[in-house]
Design a protein that fits this description.
229 residues; mainly alpha; 2 strands; 75% helix
């Protein structure tokens, strides 16, 4: 069960790595990359089953995650940052200024998602490492404390929650980035109201409609009563 639990992380990251490197490539290159990533996943599976050493899995997963994250950030910066992508000669000065301002705003929001997701992941990874090293002491302490407070020492469970939240933010960012790389910045946005909310990549009309509906529902009259939309 531990292999199934941990190797699923490898397979998901291999899939995201393929999606990052195969974007806008020819069909032959996409197939070659797919075969390469599938072969890598099979090798990691076989070698991990042979070694039975969690350290190998941790190292493999970390290297894959760093690779796909670095590649995605490279794609984001070189395609959206005005300084790196240059100017579009088909646009007027006013249009170019609007595009640059739009893309800078998108980059700012994307970097917030990256920092939040990576922070969740690294924090969870640190807790997972501590849980592996201090497993005996943590089990003993949990029994002494009892539930519900003993849950706070369930390092493996917290690891799954933290990495799940971090991975969700990364995947949402990746979906939005793919839309932007396809030139759909004016059509899609991420609806992320605050840190505790769940981000979602949606069409801009949906975001604006939700925001307008919320604003209308909260509009107040001069006497302080809420005005119905």
């Amino acid at each position: 069960m531990q292999l199934v639990d941990e190797l699923s992380m490898i397979y998901t990251t291999c899939l995201m790595t393929w999606a990052s490197f195969a974007h806008k490539r020819s069909g032959g290159v996409q197939v070659a990359l797919g075969v390469g990533m599938a072969s890598l996943a099979i090798f990691i599976t076989g070698y991990y089953h042979y070694l039975q050493d969690p350290t190998f899995h941790q190292n493999a997963y970390t290297l894959l995650t760093i690779t796909v994250l670095t590649r995605s950030i490279w794609n984001m910066e070189t395609n959206l940052r005005p300084y790196w992508r240059g100017k579009d000669g088909k646009l007027s000065a006013a249009q170019q200024e609007r595009v640059d301002k739009r893309d800078k705003a998108i980059l700012g929001k994307m970097w917030l998602m990256i920092v939040f997701g990576v922070s969740c992941f690294l924090g969870a990874f640190a807790i997972w490492t501590l849980d592996n090293e201090q497993c005996g002491w943590l089990r003993k302490t949990r029994k002494e404390i009892g539930m519900p407070w003993g849950f706070l020492l369930e390092g493996h469970a917290i690891w799954h929650l933290g990495t799940g939240i971090g991975a969700f933010h990364y995947i949402t960012w990746g979906v939005w980035l793919r839309r932007c790389l396809d030139g759909q910045q004016d059509e899609y946005d991420v609806d992320w109201q605050h840190w505790l909310s769940v981000p979602e990549c949606v069409k801009r009309s949906s975001v604006n409609g939700s925001a307008n509906g919320h604003a209308k529902g909260q509009a107040k009259t001069a006497n302080g009563r809420v005005k119905a939309s």
